[in-house]
Amino acid sequence: MPKPLRMSRRTWVAAWVVLCGAGIAATAALNAFPAPDPQPEKPGSAEYIADTEAQLAKAKVEGNEDGVLALSLTRVGADDCSDEILDHFSGDR
């Protein structure tokens, strides 16, 4: 079996210096550019939640408070906002 190559301490130190220098240079380059502006929240989720609340209020006025609400709002290209709806109405349970 061949013997592994031995590296001197100076070679190890030089390798670590190069790696650390590369990391510092990369960090400086990333920090030099400003972060992109955050995208504004799309109004779709708020509209769906408002519509759902309106349907619940209408059901309470009509006396249909059995706690079941069926949503059938689907639009082509609309974002899935089921998580936002569940988060918003989870406090009512």
Contiguous runs where pLDDT drops below 50 for at least 5 residues:
none
Helix percent band = 40-55%
Radius of gyration: 29 Å
- The arrangement of helices and strands along the chain is HHH
Distance between the termini: 69 Å
- Range of strand content: under 5%
How many E strands? 0
Largest β sheet strand count, sense and barrel closure: none
The structure class reads: mainly alpha
The averaged pLDDT comes out at 77
Principal-axis shape equals: elongated
What is the count of DSSP helices, taking H or I runs of 4+ residues?
3
Could you name the key traits of this structure?
93 residues; elongated; 3 helices; mainly alpha
Write the layout of secondary structure elements.
Layout: H1 9-32, H2 44-62, H3 82-89
Model description:
The chain has 93 residues and is mainly alpha-helical. 55% of the residues lie in helices and 0% in strands. It has helices at residues 9-32, 44-62, 82-89.
